[in-house]
From TrEMBL:
GO terms for biological process: immune response. This is Chemokine interleukin-8-like domain-containing protein. Transmembrane segments: none annotated. It holds the Pfam family IL8. GO terms for cellular component: extracellular space. SUPFAM superfamilies: Interleukin 8-like chemokines (SSF54117).
Amino acid sequence: MAFAPKACSLFLVVLLGVCIQLNGAQHVPGARCKCPGTIMHTQEIIDDFEIIEKTHYCDTTEIIVTLAEDGARRCLNPVGRKAMFFINCWNRINKDDKQKKRCLKRKAE
């Protein structure tokens, strides 16, 4: 009968380990987005932009612009006017990185 308490203890330890692993693997929407916060608009000249589609780890489309003056990166709110301009232009050029400058040359006011 000494075997039963040891087997029970081992089972509980394994069960505890599985629970800890499952708890650490929980999906938290938005937890891995590159943009912790967004702005609606920027008056500064934009040198480059990046659009990151929704993924399983970030539930929003992210628009990251690089400013010409200092190279700083800002995140635009995807429902903002300037962000919508970049999204529409990006789709128009079929998501071709080589043609991104066409979107930057147009007025995104």
